[in-house]
C-alpha cells in the first residue's frame, strides 16, 4: 500500500515526507479539556474552548501557513539556522544546496512524532507531541542527534501564544493584544491577559497561559535536576525584527541576546521563545529538550502542573500512560484476511471518542461551531459508546431525555454538563424533523444489549422555554426566571417516564404531516442543508424511519407484556395522540389540527395527571400507526424513470413537488430515501434489488469511494436547501457522504443483501485507505470531495455507524434483551488463509473473543452455524444463530476473556 504503513495491530502508522501532502492534521487531546491539532510541520492550534485559545485558531486553509507553528530552531555553528519543524523560509522554499530533509511521521492514538534528518546541516531531530492525561498541558519532547559528525548547537523554541477568544482573530486582534501581560520566570514565559473581549462581554481574565522548557542530555543521572532555559524571547515583534517573520526571525539570525527571568512586558503579542544553552554534540550523541505549553487558573497553577514534565523521565512516563490509556478505551479488535482493514478500523473506533471530546468543532475543517454537540450527535455517538464503553451509558441516555419538550421537539445544543441543554444557538428557532428518531433508536440498542427495560420507566423532566407548538408559536406566559423545566398547573416540576418521552417524540411526528401526508421537513432533517422547505417540504425518508420506530417500540411493549407487565401510566394529555382510526390517519389536515390541539394544551404547563393504558392496547396502537406509514410510502412514493430504473422518492420541496425521478435537467435520485425505506422494511425484496441497481447506475462512483448522496440537479434549488448552492460533488450536494453511505451499507446488511452491503463498505475503505487518493490519515471523514480527497476528518457520525455495521452486521454480534446473539454475515474473502475471522469485544460486563472458523471456505449463504464452544466447552450443534443467555453471561468470570469458537459448516 502506498502512503502510510501500519506498524502494529493498534493502528500505529508511519508516513514518509508527510509535509509533501497538504491539509494534513492530527488530533491531540485529553479529557481535562485540552483540544489540539498538529500538522507535519507542527502547525495547528490548541484550545480549551471558544474563548480560550492558547495557540491561534486555524481553519483548513491556514494549514499551509507554517509561520504559526510550534517551531524549534537550532543554530548550528558554521552552518546556520535550521528548523526542526521544517518551518523556515529556506526549508519551505527548498533552498538547500544538496537535498531536502528526510522526514518520517509516526503516530498512534493521541501521540504524534516527526523525525527530520538533514545531511546538509548534519543533524537529526525527533519531536514527539502529546497531551498528558491529567493536566491542562501539551508536551513536546525534542531530541537532537549528531548522526554524522560533531556539531555545536544553540536551540530555541519559538511558539506564538495567542491567549484569547477565537472571535478576536479579526475582531479587535490588536486591541486584545493590549490586554497582554507577559512575564518571564526561570522555567519559562507566562501570559496573563487583564480582560477578555468576546461574546460574553468584557470580563476579568481567569486563565493564565504559559510555556516552560528544560533540557536533559543522555545519559542523565537519576535525581539530577534538568537544565533550565538560558533566556527568553517573549515578544514576537522583537523576535522577528524589522522585515523578518516567524520563519525568518531576525533575532536568531543576528544572534541577539535573549532576556532573563524577571522580564515584564505589557501590551504586545507574546512568543513562547525559550533559549537553551549552547552545547556540543559528539558524533552519535543526543540531547532532549522539553517544551511544555498550557493553561492554569493562576501563575502558580500553571507552573505546578508544568514543572514535573521538565523531567524527561516524568514526561516519558506520562507519554506511556497516555498511550496505554487511550488504547484501553478501544476494547474492540478485529482479525480478518486484511490486516490493514483491521488496523484502519482501530482509527474508526477511536473517532467517536474524539467526537465526545471535540464535539463538532475545534479541528481545522470543523471551524463552524463554537463547541459542544448537537442533539443528533449526542444520540448517534452513544451508539458507539454503547458498544465500546457501556459503563455509564445508562445514566447518559436517561439524562439526555431532559432535553425533550412536551411538544415533541427538543433543545438543540448540549451544555458542558451531562443533562444540561440550551434551546438553540443565537436564539434561532429551528426544528429538525429527524431529531425525534434518534433517542429511541439508541435506547433500543441499549436495551437489546443489556436487557435493561427498566430504563423505560425511569422518570425525568422535560425541557421548557418560550418555544411552543414545535417551533411555530411562542409561550407568551413563560419567563426566564421560570427555569427550563416543564411545570404543572400547580407549578410543580413535572416528570414523566423515558417511555413517555419517546412516545411524545414519535407520536407528535406522526401527526406533523404535510399535504402528501408524509412528515414535514420543517427546518431540515438529517441533511442540515435541506433547510429551505420549511412550509411545504416533506421528508419521506425519515417518515420511513419513524414508521420503523413505532413498530419496534410496539414490539418492545409486547415483549414487556410477555414478561408479565400489564399497564403503564402516561400523561393525560398524551392520550389525545393515541387516536386510532384509519380515517384520521388518511386525513393529513385533520392530523395537523389534532397535533395543534395537543401542542396548545401543553404550551405553558401540563395537568400533571396520569392515566393508565394496557401494554396490549398501546402496542397495537403504535404498530398500527407504524405500519400505516410504511404502507402509505409503499403506495405513493415508488417511482420509475424513463430508462426503467425504480426507487423511492425521498423528499417534497417547498412548492409541494416530488423531488426525484425524470427531470428535463437530468434524472434526479437521492440516497437518503433508499437507506430508510430499505432499513425499515418498506422496500420489499425485489424493490431492494431495483434500488441497488438504480443506485449503481446513478450514484456509484468507484473512483470517489462509492455512493454519492444525490445526482446533479443542475439547479440552484432554493425551494429545498442551501446544499444546491454548493459545488456539485462537495459536501451535501453529490459528494460521497460517508455517513449516509455507511447507513446504506448497514441497511443492506440488515436485509441480508450482504454482497451489496459489503460493496458499500469496502468501496469506502479501499478509497480512504489509499493515501495517494484520499490524502488523509487513517479513519473515515465526513465526505470525499470530487477530487477524491477526504474532508472533515475525525469528527463525524459515520464512524459510529461504521463501527456498528462492522461489529453487529458483518461479524453479527448483537444483543437480544441481554442475550448475546451471533449471526455472522462475513463473505468468504474476509476469512484468513486458515479460514478464520475473529473479533473481541465487551458484552454484558464480560469480555469475549469470538472466532469463526470457515474451514471449507464457503460463501455467505452457503454456511450456517455448526458446533460451538465457550471456553473450549461444547455448547451444541447446528443452528441459524448462536445464543448465549443473559443468565449464562452473568455466571461468567468478569475478570477473564471468554473465548467462543463457532464452526461454520
UniProtKB/TrEMBL annotation:
Domain named Glycosyl hydrolase 94 catalytic: residues: 619-810
InterPro entries referenced in this protein's UniProt entry, alphabetically: 6-hairpin_glycosidase_sf, 6hp_glycosidase-like_sf, GH65_N, GH94_catalytic, GH94_Enzymes, Glyco_hydrolase_94_b-supersand
Keywords: Glycosyltransferase, Transferase
Source domain of life: Bacteria
Gene3D superfamilies xrefs: 1.50.10.10, Glycoside hydrolase, family 65, N-terminal domain
Occurrences of domain Glycosyl hydrolase 94 supersandwich (ranges): 112-309
Alphabetized GO MF terms: glycosyltransferase activity
BP GO annotations: carbohydrate metabolic process
Protein name from the UniProt record: Glycosyltransferase family 36
Organism (species): Anaerocolumna jejuensis DSM 15929
Amino acid at each position: 500500500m502506498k502512503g502510510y504503513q501500519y506498524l502494529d495491530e493498534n493502528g500505529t502508522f508511519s508516513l514518509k515526507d508527510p509535509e509533501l501532502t497538504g491539509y494534513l492534521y492530527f488530533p491531540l487531546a485529553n479529557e481535562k479539556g485540552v483540544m489540539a491539532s498538529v500538522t507535519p510541520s507542527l502547525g495547528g492550534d490548541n484550545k480549551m474552548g471558544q474563548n480560550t485559545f492558547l495557540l491561534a485558531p486555524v481553519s483548513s486553509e491556514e494549514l499551509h501557513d507554517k509561520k504559526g507553528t510550534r517551531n524549534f530552531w537550532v543554530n548550528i555553528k558554521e552552518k546556520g539556522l535550521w528548523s526542526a519543524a521544517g518551518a523556515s523560509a529556506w526549508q519551505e522554499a527548498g533552498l538547500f544546496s544538496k537535498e531536502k530533509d528526510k522526514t518520517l511521521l509516526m503516530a498512534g492514538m493521541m501521540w504524534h512524532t516527526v523525525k527530520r534528518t538533514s545531511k546538509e546541516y548534519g543533524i537529526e531531530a525527533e519531536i514527539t507531541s502529546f497531551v498528558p492525561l491529567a493536566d491542562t498541558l501539551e508536551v513536546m519532547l525534542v531530541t537532537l542527534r549528531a548522526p554524522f559528525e560533531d556539531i555545536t548547537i544553540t536551540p530555541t523554541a519559538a511558539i506564538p501564544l495567542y491567549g484569547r477568544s477565537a472571535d478576536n482573530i479579526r475582531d479587535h486582534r490588536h486591541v486584545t493584544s493590549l490586554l497582554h501581560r507577559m512575564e518571564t520566570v526561570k522555567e519559562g514565559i507566562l501570559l496573563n491577559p487583564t480582560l477578555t473581549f468576546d461574546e460574553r462581554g468584557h470580563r476579568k481574565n481567569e486563565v493564565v497561559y504559559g510555556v516552560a522548557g528544560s533540557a536533559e542530555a543522555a545519559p542523565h543521572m537519576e535525581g539530577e535536576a534538568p537544565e533550565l532555559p538560558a533566556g527568553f524571547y517573549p515578544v514576537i515583534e522583537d523576535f522577528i525584527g524589522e522585515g523578518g517573520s516567524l520563519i525568518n526571525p531576525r533575532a536568531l539570525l543576528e544572534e541577539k541576546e535573549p532576556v532573563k527571568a524577571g522580564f515584564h512586558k505589557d501590551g504586545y503579542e507574546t512568543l513562547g521563545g525559550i533559549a537553551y544553552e549552547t552545547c556540543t554534540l559528539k558524533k552519535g550523541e543526543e540531547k532532549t529538550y522539553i517544551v511544555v505549553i498550557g493553561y492554569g487558573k493562576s501563575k502558580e497553577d500553571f507552573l505546578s502542573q508544568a514543572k514535573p514534565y521538565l523531567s524527561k523521565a516524568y514526561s516519558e512516563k506520562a507519554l506511556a500512560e497516555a498511550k496505554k490509556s487511550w488504547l484501553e478505551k478501544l476494547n474492540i479488535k478485529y482479525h480478518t484476511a486484511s490486516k490493514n482493514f483491521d488496523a484502519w478500523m482501530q482509527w474508526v473506533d477511536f473517532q467517536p471518542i474524539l467526537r465526545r471530546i471535540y464535539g463538532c468543532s475545534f479541528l481545522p475543517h470543523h471551524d463552524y461551531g463554537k463547541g459542544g454537540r448537537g442533539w443528533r450527535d449526542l444520540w448517534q455517538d452513544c451508539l458507539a459508546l454503547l458498544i465500546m464503553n457501556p459503563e455509564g451509558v445508562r445514566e447518559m441516555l436517561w439524562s439526555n431525555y431532559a432535553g425533550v419538550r412536551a411538544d415533541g421537539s427538543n433543545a438543540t445544543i448540549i451544555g458542558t454538563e451531562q443533562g444540561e441543554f440550551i434551546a438553540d444557538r443565537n436564539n434561532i428557532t429551528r426544528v429538525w424533523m429527524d431529531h425525534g428518531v434518534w433517542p429511541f433508536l439508541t435506547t433500543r440498542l441499549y436495551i437489546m444489549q443489556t436487557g435493561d427495560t427498566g430504563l423505560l420507566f425511569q422518570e425525568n423532566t422535560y425541557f421548557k422555554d418560550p418555544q411552543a407548538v414545535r417551533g411555530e408559536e411562542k409561550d407568551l406566559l413563560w419567563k426566564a426566571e421560570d427555569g427550563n423545566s416543564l411545570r404543572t398547573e400547580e407549578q410543580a416540576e413535572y416528570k414523566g417516564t423515558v417511555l413517555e418521552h419517546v412516545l411524545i417524540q414519535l407520536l407528535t411526528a406522526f401527526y406533523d404531516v404535510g399535504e402528501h401526508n408524509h412528515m414535514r421537513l420543517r427546518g431540515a432533517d438529517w441533511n442540515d442543508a435541506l433547510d429551505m422547505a420549511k412550509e411545504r417540504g416533506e421528508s419521506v425518508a425519515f417518515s420511513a424511519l419513524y414508521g420503523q420506530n413505532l413498530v419496534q417500540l410496539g414490539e418492545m411493549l409486547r415483549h414487556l407484556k410477555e414478561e408479565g407487565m400489564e399497564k403503564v401510566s402516561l400523561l393525560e394529555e398524551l392520550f389525545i395522540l393515541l387516536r386510532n382510526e384509519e380515517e384520521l390517519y388518511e386525513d393529513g389536515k385533520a392530523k395537523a389540527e389534532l397535533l395543534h390541539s395537543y401542542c396548545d394544551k401543553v404550551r405553558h404547563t401540563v395537568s400533571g395527571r396520569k392515566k393508565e393504558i394496557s401494554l396490549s392496547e398501546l402496542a397495537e396502537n403504535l404498530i398500527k400507526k407504524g405500519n400505516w406509514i410504511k404502507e402509505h410510502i409503499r403506495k405513493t412514493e415508488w417511482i420509475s424513470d424513463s430508462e426503467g430504473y425504480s426507487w423511492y422518492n425521498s423528499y417534497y420541496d417547498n412548492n409541494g413537488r416530488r423531488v426525484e425521478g425524470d427531470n428535463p435537467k437530468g434524472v434526479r435520485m437521492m440516497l437518503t430515501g433508499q437507506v430508510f425505506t430499505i432499513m425499515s422494511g418498506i422496500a420489499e425484496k425485489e424493490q431492494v434489488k431495483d434500488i441497488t441497481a438504480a443506485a449503481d447506475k446513478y450514484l456509484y462512483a468507484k473512483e470517489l469511494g462509492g455512493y454519492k448522496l444525490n445526482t446533479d440537479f443542475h439547479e440552484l434549488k432554493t425551494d429545498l436547501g442551501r446544499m444546491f448552492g454548493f459545488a456539485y460533488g462537495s459536501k451535501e450536494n453529490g459528494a460521497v457522504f460517508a455517513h449516509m453511505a455507511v447507513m446504506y451499507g448497514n441497511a443492506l446488511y440488515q436485509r441480508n443483501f450482504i454482497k451489496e452491503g459489503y460493496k458499500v463498505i469496502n468501496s469506502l475503505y479501499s478509497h480512504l485507505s489509499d493515501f495517494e487518493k484520499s490524502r488523509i490519515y487513517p479513519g473515515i471523514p465526513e465526505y470525499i470531495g470530487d477530487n477524491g480527497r477526504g474532508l472533515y476528518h475525525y469528527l463525524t457520525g459515520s464512524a459510529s455507524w461504521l463501527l456498528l455495521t462492522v461489529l453487529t452486521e458483518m461479524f453479527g454480534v448483537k444483543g437480544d434483551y441481554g442475550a448475546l446473539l451471533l449471526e455472522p454475515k462475513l463473505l468468504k474473502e474476509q476469512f484468513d488463509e486458515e479460514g478464520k475471522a475473529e473479533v473481541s469485544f465487551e458484552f454484558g460486563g464480560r469480555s469475549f473473543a469470538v472466532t469463526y472458523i470457515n474451514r471449507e471456505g464457503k460463501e455467505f449463504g452457503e454456511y450456517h452455524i455448526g458446533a460451538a464452544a465457550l471456553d473450549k466447552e461444547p455448547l451444541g450443534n447446528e443452528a441459524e444463530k448462536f445464543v448465549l443467555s443473559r443468565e449464562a453471561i452473568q455466571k461468567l468470570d468478569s475478570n477473564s476473556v471468554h473465548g467462543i469458537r463457532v464452526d461454520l459448516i
